[in-house]
Amino acid sequence: YLIFLMSLLINSPSTAFNFQKFEVCAGVPSIHGMLIIEPKIFADGRGWFFESFNENAFFKAVGLNSKFAQDNHSFSYYGVLRGLHYQLKHPQGKLVRVVSGSIFDVTVDVRKLSPTYGRWFGIEVSALNRKQLWIPPGVAHGFLVISAGAEVLYKATDFYDPQSEVCLAWNDPTAGVEWPLPKGVLPNVNAKDAVGLSWDAIPKF
């Protein structure tokens, strides 16, 4: 089975839901609707095995009826920062995991009606800890590579739409993300992310 750790709001009651192969229980407060997913590893002298995704249990856990539309796979070197991205007209829910290396994964809630609106959350996701993140639609997402290199895989609930993509500046002071960068060192970002918008300038949901 997989253990799903459901992120809840501070001071909200913990609730557990038992499924055939999954258990959802209280986790660390973060972004409303996010899930931290940890697979159970079955190992023996031959190696190991785990279920990285189970459609029935996953959609029951997150309460969605939609399916994933697209799978993405990226490789980035140490110090590369991608984000913080979201799509306005075609919001994407994302299921993120790392199959090589390690990243510091960040989400920022840009949903005005969310109880965690304006909050950011960061967590290390790596091939070693095998954590996965469910990031609901309407949340900006990005990551910083903190190993020599990292391969990131993620499923998305809608197709990529460059016309409606928005980039929140990675270093926006209002969002206040605390990236684990050495003092005085800037991340490696592309031209688009280098001119990301401020918190006040981005459109919200």
Report on this model:
The chain is mainly beta and about 200 residues long. The radius of gyration is 17 Å and the shape is globular. It contains 2 helices and 15 strands. The strands form 3 sheets. The protein has an 8-stranded mixed β-sheet, covered by helices on one side. A hairpin with a 2-residue loop joins strand 5 and strand 6.
Attribute tags:
single chain, 2 helices, 205 residues, disordered N terminus, mainly beta, 5-stranded antiparallel beta sheet
Shape: globular
Q: What is the typical, i.e. mean, pLDDT?
A: 86
Count of DSSP H/I helices: 2
End-to-end distance: 35 Å
The beta-strand count equals 15
Q: Largest sheet, if any?
A: 8 strands, mixed
- Measured by DSSP, the beta-strand proportion falls in 35-45%
Spatial sequence of strands, sheet with the most strands: 2-3-1-4-12-9-14-7
What radius of gyration results from the CA coordinates?
17 Å
Task: Give the helices and strands as they follow along the chain.
Answer: EEEEEEHEEEEEEEEEH
